[in-house]
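Re: that chain you flagged

S.,

Sorry for the slow reply, it's been a week of failed gels. I finally had a moment to sit down with the sequence you sent. For the record, here it is as I used it:
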Amino acid sequence: MAHECHNYRPITSRRDFLGRMGLGLGGVALASLVAMKPPPGPVARARRIIYLFQSGGPSQFELFDYKPLVNQMHGEELPASVRQGQRLTGMTGFQNSLPLARSHFDFAQHGQSGAWVSELMPHVASIADELCFVRSMHTEAINHDPAITFFLTGSQIAGRPSMGSWLSYGLGSENDNLPAFCVLITKDKSGQPLYSRLWGNGFLPSLHQGVQFRSGADPVLYLNNPEGVSAKVRRRMLTRLRELHELKAQEPGFEEIEARIAQYEMAYRMQTSVPDVMDLSDEPDHVVNMYGPDARNPGTFAANCLLARRLAECGVRFIQLFHQGWDHHGGLPGGIRVQCRETDQPSAALVTDLKQRGMLDDTLVVWGGEFGRTNYCQGRLTDEDYGRDHHPRCFTLWMAGGGVKAGLSYGRTDDFGYNIVQDPVHVHDLQATLLHILGIDHEKLTFKHQGRRYRLTDVHGHVTRALLV
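Prediction finished late last night. Pasting the structure tokens below so you have them in one place:
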């Protein structure tokens, strides 16, 4: 490319610099965004994250946090000395009684690690020695919207960039033909609503927003050419549009145009790459069967787990799966059976599949929700039915691969499963640790907006090094 070295007019802005260097097309945006990357951070243990987000707050008492004392004291009142006057939601804050509710499901220890896992998750139990359980997660958020927003953006208040967008901004993609950040939502599920801002770019350039993939003829909305428009016509249109955008980009106040150019070019390339990655016809039957009977049904959690592995193979940096329906204020025994039947086998299969392909070492898999559930019953407690309210003070998630310690159960809650008594891990600590695993210092990954430098972990968070190999 020709450099206009004869022109000595001072360079007054990044846009001025890029324009005078003669860079065009999506390269303008990509080159400029690369220039904004933070200084090098720690050595990366992983290259990508697959985050299996279980929306609604899975109950740790029925899945991973075995509490014999709660079972023994079934129906007795939660001791005031345990609660210590802590905040409750409006759904149980006015109950006259807070009776302890035993889990209806048996637990056993699994693998050489001896991790406690419920009978509801036999497939996850079978890979217990591959998993790193964090039993001491905690958050300040007690309701769904602020809690899930906090987990995914670092703030309870909407508007900040999502975790995947931060990673896209900090690291970019390993594949020029696919976004750095992809989102998959289990179809035909109800529960707490999911908003596009949970994978939004916030104040980062729009190039970094998550791209939602859907089941059906159009996996990405507005990607296909309209009827009567050929690929040749689309290419010619984008070329002319690029020229117009580059003219406008020379004017003050149009910084976003660079990202818009890159988005148009990415969409053009995705017209070929997306159908390829969505086509499972080249997957052997034994691999598809490993993910369970739902894996051949596009849009199910099982099919999305298999698709997540394919996206990871293609170099997508952050793959976010959402599975709704874990908000069991009532009817918990029946409801959680359904959830586990849909998620247990494919979650374990994803870890196993990645390991068989030699990808688990540089892929971090995360499984968990926005908070946990109470040890006491919400509403009427019977021998066969009960519900649990939101509990932000302690809950469990697990991770696998990506430089975390396999076979580790980290942190401990009290005998009532109500408070953390050892090694607490805050949401910001988890975020800092995930960034560290991908080679990013969470304090240095910042973006200046409205006069202040923001980061995913705000002004908090510490890397939990005990979780790392």
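What I noticed first: Residues 46-223+285-467 form a domain with the Alkaline Phosphatase, subunit A fold (CATH 3.40.720.10).

Talk soon,
D.
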